[in-house]
Amino acid sequence: ILYMASPSNHSTGLISEFFLICFPNFQSWQHWLSLPLSLLFLLAMVANTTLLITIWLEAALHQPMYYLLSLLSLLDMVLCLTVIPKVLAIFWFDVRSISFSACFLQMFIMNSFLTMESCTFMVMAYDRYVAICHPLRYPSIITEQFVVRAAIFVVARNGLLTIPIPILSSRLRYCAGNVINNCICTNLSVSKLSCEDITFNRLYQFAVGWTLLGSDLILIVLSYSFILKVVLRIKAEGAVAKALNTCGSHFILILFFSTVLLVLVITNLTRKRIPPDFPILLNILHHLIPPALNPIVYGVRTKEIRQGIQKLLRNFILEL
């Protein structure tokens, strides 16, 4: 099915809605893909909701480290809810239209919340650095006031620097149709429909993305390098293995988060050599796999949270 805007809209550049084609070359197997995506979406929402409720109800978990984990869960849930329901609506009900304003709102949330998540990873890495490298100073450094300031910094820095991306795209004149060859409103997928020069849009997104994500990744690597250095000096039996197991799983998850973004950049730069459906699928999975794994790796594997979830389940069963 070919979706096109009316000729009058083309001539004036005023488009009221876009149409998301998703996987243009593999329309027939979209229903099969929706099954694992919906299961991952369900896992992500249930796991993050359970984690948030547990931290909220369990007084013993009202600590800075768990507040940061709550912030990460909230960001994950917003990202999932911004992208996946629309993708599933396309797969199941062929609801491909998205309004002009909704498209650019989705673009803003994706850009800002992904960088907010990266920044939260950086703050959490700093939290682990202080806890392991300066344990005696931890209560005086990582306080509730620190968490509040960190949350304000995460939201303000990333929100202010990424909001020009959808604004720049929305101010373009669209005369090359309104069919987006993607499942979501990414900046490049949308702006290339414009008949104006989009070089500045591309450069701004590239510069902001690498500045925010790159600086976060460098600070995360430095934090875990210092942690590794201190951990290897610990003589207590089992302490090294426990610390390496915990921090190792955190670091692997962060690397996965960063590597997927790097792969997306590479696939967009070399898109003529790579099937267009591959970066589209990768982009969707990037909004699903980290939100599904974060509460498990950061939360359930933590003894205190595991005990809190067990207590919550016991109370729920008793009430039934």
Short description, anyone?
The chain has 320 residues and is an all-alpha fold.
Write out key terms for the chains shown.
320 residues; 3 strands; 13 helices; Olfact_rcpt; Rhopdopsin 7-helix transmembrane proteins; mainly alpha; 74% helix; GPCR_Rhodpsn_7TM; three-stranded mixed sheet
Describe the structure.
It comes from Otolemur garnettii (Small-eared galago). Residues 47-298 form the G-protein coupled receptors family 1 profile domain. It is found in: Membrane. The chain crosses the membrane at residues 33-57, 69-92, 98-125, 146-168, 207-231, 243-266. It is a multi-pass membrane protein. The protein is mainly α and 320 residues long. The chain has a single domain, classed as Rhodopsin 7-helix transmembrane proteins (Rhopdopsin 7-helix transmembrane proteins, Up-down Bundle). Helix content is 74%, strand content 3%. The protein is built from 13 helices and 3 strands, in the order αβααβααααβαααααα. It has a 3-stranded mixed β-sheet. Helix 3 (64-93) packs antiparallel against helix 4 (100-133). The protein is globular.
